[in-house]
Write a structure and sequence with these properties.
Layout (H helix, E strand, L loop, with lengths): L4 E5 L2 E6 L11 E4 L10 H9 L4 E4 L9 H15 L2 E6 L1 H12 L4 E7 L9 H5 L3 E2 L2 E2 H4 L4
Parallel strand pairs: 3-4, 3-5, 5-6
Antiparallel strand pairs: 1-2, 2-4, 7-8
Helix pairs in contact: 2-3
C-alpha cells in the first residue's frame, strides 16, 4: 500500500506523506510542479521522504483551470498557511512560482530549491538568499542572474 495520501488544504488539492515518528531534524517539504505537471511527478520523492521520516507535500496546480502565476503563488501560500513553514522545491514553471512565493513570504519558506527553472524577470538569486551567497553560487555570480 502506498504511503501517499490526498487531501485539500485551504481549498488546494495536495498529495502528501505523513510518516510515523517524523524526524524533527528535517523541515517539511513542499513540491511545486510546472506546467502540464501534476503531483505524481514527485511520487518517487514523496516516497523517499516517507522512508526518511520527512513530512512532504506536492501541490496540484490544476493547469486546466488556466490560472495566472499570481493564482498559483496564492495556492502555495494557502498550503503553507495550513502546514506551516516548509522548504519549497519547484520544478520548471513551479520554480518560478516557488521563487515568488518564497520572496514574498520569507517567514514561511525555510529554503528554496529551483529545479530546471528560471527566475522571474527582475528577480536575482541574491535578493532571496539574504546573504553574500546564493545556494552554491558566489555573490558576484548570483548578482548577474536575472
Amino acid at each position: 500500500m502506498s504511503p501517499i495520501q490526498k487531501a485539500v488544504f485551504n481549498g488546494v488539492k495536495v498529495d502528501f506523506v505523513d510518516p510515523p515518528n517524523v524526524d524533527p531534524r528535517y523541515p517539511k517539504i513542499l513540491f511545486v510542479h510546472g506546467m502540464w505537471g501534476a503531483p505524481w511527478i514527485f511520487y518517487v520523492w514523496l516516497s523517499i521522504c516517507y522512508l526518511l521520516k520527512i513530512r512532504a507535500y506536492a501541490l496540484d496546480l490544476e493547469p486546466a483551470d488556466c490560472r495566472s502565476t499570481r493564482d498559483y503563488v496564492d495556492m502555495v501560500v494557502k498550503v503553507l498557511d495550513q502546514i506551516g513553514p516548509a522548504a519549497l522545491i519547484g520544478h520548471s514553471n513551479g520554480a518560478i512560482i516557488a521563487s515568488v512565493a518564497a520572496s514574498e513570504n520569507p517567514n514561511k519558506a525555510l529554503a528554496l530549491v529551483r529545479v530546471a527553472g528560471s527566475l522571474p524577470k527582475g528577480m536575482r538569486c541574491i535578493e532571496y538568499s539574504g546573504s553574500s551567497t546564493a545556494i552554491g553560487v558566489p555573490s558576484r555570480a548570483a548578482s548577474s542572474f536575472g
